[in-house]
Amino acid sequence: MASWRDTLNIDVTTYKSDAGNQLKGFLENLVRRTGPQYLFDGTQELIVSANELVANSEHTLSLLVYAGLNPDVVHLGPTFESVLGSKTVNQKYTPDPSTFFQGSNLVLPKNSALDSQFKSFEHWTSVNEVKHISLWLLAALRSLYGVDLPSALEVTIPLPGEARPGRLDVVAKWADQLVCFEAKTSIADAIKDRRFEEQVPKYRKQIVETCHELGLSGIISSVLLCPGGSESELKCVDGEIRASPVGQKLLEVCSKYGIKFITANAVWQMVASKLAVENSHYELMTAIAKLKNSPNLLGLTSAGFVLANSTVEKWTN
Description:
10 helices; 31% helix; 16 strands; alpha+beta
């Protein structure tokens, strides 16, 4: 069995900066330092006793990227809890992966792995942008594409017309695709802040310029908004988005500035489907490409693709 330290922590790499542009260091793999970060601040998903990993069978929901990052140590139970021990097969999972992205928002199982201050996974992602949603998203990307996926947190990048550089919250490179996420603790917080509507277009421009400067014009780059928290602001009912005023404002801003979004719950479903359904899962890079190439699509929630006319398109896997 792997060391419990290797299971509970992930290595996060910081890259060298060139004139305030750390993205250059990332793309050229100029490492400054690498160090472990505890994956789930505020959780008791897996605990250590007498220097050994132990698990509580009531710890459900899983914050399931543990299983994706440690496939030889951690597996899934029927309610997506992290289980230490031999792998089980032909499980029936709750929620049922066949319902993912099929017109209904994800109803998450109870999660007693979280500290008492957090009521749910959605509450957990809505509280701390850096220690919760950004680090969880980085780990989820590695669960989907392997632990060696080039990825980083808080990558600085110049912003055209700004004295201070910006910061790409989560960055990952898969083949010729460079994916950057602007993490927000919730849809409401994103709209309250509103900086993303100016930042994301500037990020897109500077990323293209950086890739061109490095002779990497073949890189396909995307910058997406990734809100944590509840999807209640964009609730899907009978194939239509019944948006709250805040949710409607998000759709309007995204439409106006050409910004695409993927919710944390949608990413949760992608990881869950990969681990639960052999040879059949929803592919993140496919979703990003579809959003990028479809002007009428604004984003992806656990219910499916959100269109500009507030209808929802199911994701056929």
